[in-house]
Specification:
Strand content: under 5%
Order of helices and strands: HHHHHHHHHHHHEHHHEHHEEHHHH
Radius of gyration: 22 Å
Strand order of the largest sheet: 1-2
Structural class: mainly alpha
Number of strands: 4
Helix content: 55-70%
């Protein structure tokens, strides 16, 4: 596929330039307006430890680059605030720690426009997942960007692609699944040697990234970054969370901590077998489209079967899907709708009604209730008081009754969001398989 001349297109299309400007301003506004205090309170505790001892802090469950990036940016923001005696350092802190997320969102938008024209760009800008991730302070936008760039350069520069996937893995462990489709593409489009070189670069980079922490405190690293995840209960948009949601978290089913691995491994093996059988049928796709299709397929299967259905995880694969289906308007609009239910409506029904009614919200990760209003107040510190009160107090006529209705029907509303989100994932799988089998989408 011939690259689109980005600069000449921007000069001739001022609405696109205006869209990028407005998009950037909205992202920056969201960045400084708040964050998800439940997660951030644990992030801040990382900063109390030494760089090589972050896994001694509670809930440092990421691979090293996530805590490293946050600690460096947070400490820098605090130092600047103290040096210049800022009266409201919270804005600077939020701006700096979220700047990589804003940059990732903008760069992803640029790449989608460059390689896919206007439709992927518009769908990306309309996606609630991007705004939710920036506001709450999660690192999935960074992971998604590295995965996207690795797919775009895989066949031409496999060593660089391997390094980028390794960096994504050092932010979020699950990104390692990308090595499977990437090695398949390299085996088909380059050579076995290229695929093995890719694997070697990936492993060397990941090992180099985790080695200082493994050597410094092996036990804490294993407990926090690996074992913690194996013991987590299903949550959020996962299909395995449905029994818990329908019982309003009154029932804890231990088998759900590991049962998801069986269908995931089975479907992954079946997919690999099918790709071997379809080897001669994949020649109709360009290098880029084949890489996008296979990487998307493995990532979507992971998201569908995964027991942790964090809404932000969709950002790992969303840029790939939008670029792959860059001419499919229906799919793009379905994407916008799915991210609205997953990344806006689900978090809203989970937290806001409980906060307005001054009740508690159930945090699956801890398997206990937290005061919803306190979490929301701490998340919006720095906002003007009238706006903050509007968020947490029933001010509008009939608002209390509406919130009570939503809060009482949380299981059904949450089930609706889970079904729509996972229907979107299955629909994506079906369309990708049609492309791989030379059928129109």
């Amino acid at each position: 596929m011939q690259k689109i001349d980005l600069l000449s297109r921007l000069r001739a299309n001022w609405p696109t330039v205006l869209l990028f400007v407005l998009y950037t301003l909205v992202l920056l506004g969201l960045a400084v307006s708040g964050w998800n205090w439940y997660d951030v309170q644990w992030f801040i505790k990382w900063t109390k430890e030494g760089i090589l001892h972050v896994y001694e802090a509670p809930k440092c469950a990421y691979f090293p680059l996530t805590p490293l990036l946050f600690v460096l940016l947070y400490r820098s923001a605090v130092w600047i605030a103290k040096t210049f005696s800022l009266s409201q350092p919270i804005y600077l802190i939020r701006f700096l720690v979220k700047l990589p997320l804003v940059i990732s969102a903008i760069v992803t938008a640029v790449l989608l426009y460059r390689y896919g024209d206007a439709l992927p760009l518009v769908a990306w800008v309309m996606s609630a997942a991007v705004y939710s991730n920036v506001w709450s302070l999660q690192f999935d936008l960074i992971v998604g960007l590295f995965i996207l760039i690795s797919c775009l350069c895989l066949v031409r520069r496999p060593t660089l692609a391997a390094f980028l996937v390794a960096i994504a893995t050092l932010f979020k462990q699950a990104a390692a699944i990308c090595i499977v489709p990437h090695m398949i593409v390299l085996r088909y489009r380059r050579s076995l040697r290229a695929a093995l070189t890719y694997l070697g670069v990936f492993l060397a980079t990941v090992i180099a990234g985790i080695a200082p922490y493994v050597l410094t405190d092996f036990k804490s690293f294993i407990l926090k970054a690996i074992i913690f995840h194996s013991q987590r209960m299903p949550q959020d948009l996962s299909i395995w969370n449905i029994p818990q949601v329908l019982t309003n978290f009154r029932v804890k089913i231990p088998v759900l901590t590991w049962i998801w691995e069986i269908p995931f491994l089975a479907s992954t093996i079946v997919l690999c077998v099918l790709l071997v059988r379809w080897k001669d049928k994949l020649t109709h796709l360009s290098d880029m489209d084949l890489t996008l299709a296979l990487t998307s397929l493995f990532l979507v299967l992971l998201l569908f079967w995964n027991k942790v259905g964090n809404p932000g995880y969709i950002l790992w694969v969303l840029p790939l899907l939008l670029l792959l289906f860059r001419e499919n308007v229906t799919y793009s609009m379905f994407t916008v709708a799915a991210t609205f239910f997953a990344n806006f409506l689900y978090p809203w029904i989970l937290c806001v009604p409980a906060a307005v009614l001054n009740k508690e919200v159930f945090i699956v990760e801890d398997w206990r209730y937290w005061p919803a209003r306190a979490l929301l107040v701490n998340s919006t510190i720095g906002l003007p008081l009238p706006l903050q009160l509007y968020v947490i107090l029933p001010i509008l006529p009939g608002e209390s009754r509406l919130m009570m209705l939503v809060e009482r029907n949380f299981p059904l509303l949450a089930l609706m969001c889970i079904v729509i989100y996972n229907a979107f994932l299955l629909f994506s799988v079906a369309l990708i398989l049609r492309i791989l089998r030379r059928k129109s989408y």
